[in-house]
């Protein structure tokens, strides 16, 4: 199992995202992921840098770790032909270390371009067409496409990496799991959805990597860690069907007003007990995940987590999970 470091653009200033990624590589993490948002989930998260600018800087500043979008939506805010160009360029800049993680998106980020937010079945159809377009463009040559949702007119990518950029697709339920099995090199999820992982394998994804992410709140004062976890991660308490529909941070504030710290910490390891983190990873390993990244709560607590993880957490995880 590989262990990564997740950069959360919603909580961290742009320049620090770069230094955090560089220092994560130095601390021995196996890969670095980055979120791709227009808005933060909550106002007090306070940031939302353009992920692709940060990725370009990270491609230059890092040397070993794969760089991964977790995840980019290629359906509304970005046209899939433009996503293909960005990803191919990242593949070149990173010397083949880039992985394009894709998701069907949330109204929170996609409404800014002024298009109506479609129902889930339409979003999945758009997602499938978008990935098809990206794949075709990764193959080189001119691409013309006439689908139900997208058109591409004589597009061609002139700068391509030596091998096509691997594509990961996020899935939380069976429909998205089947779509990922059809189109993706990698399955991704921020929930330990063992049933989706099994479906992915049965539908054609057997043997392919499965990436997950665990939010954490590391620190010596457990009570403070729990308060910090609640402040950063309470947005995730509503079901995904609700999260994908809300249009702005103020709506997430209202929807999570009654969420208690204990509701959040049930899925967010808090404190500095390595055993709690091992237990969390075990749940994902049992669900079939092969790669797990950690997203530390609080921009001002990143270095503390990296120092502790390098000395205490990563050695134990590698001994336990290989």
UniProtKB/TrEMBL annotation:
One of its GO terms (molecular function) is oxidoreductase activity, acting on paired donors, with incorporation or reduction of molecular oxygen. It holds the Pfam family Bac_luciferase. Its EC number is 1.-.-.-. The keyword Secreted does not apply. InterPro entries: F420-G6PD/mer, F420_G6P_DH-rel, Luciferase-like_dom, Luciferase-like_sf. Residues 1-290 form the Luciferase-like domain. Keywords: Oxidoreductase. The keyword RNA-binding does not apply. This is TIGR03557 family F420-dependent LLM class oxidoreductase.
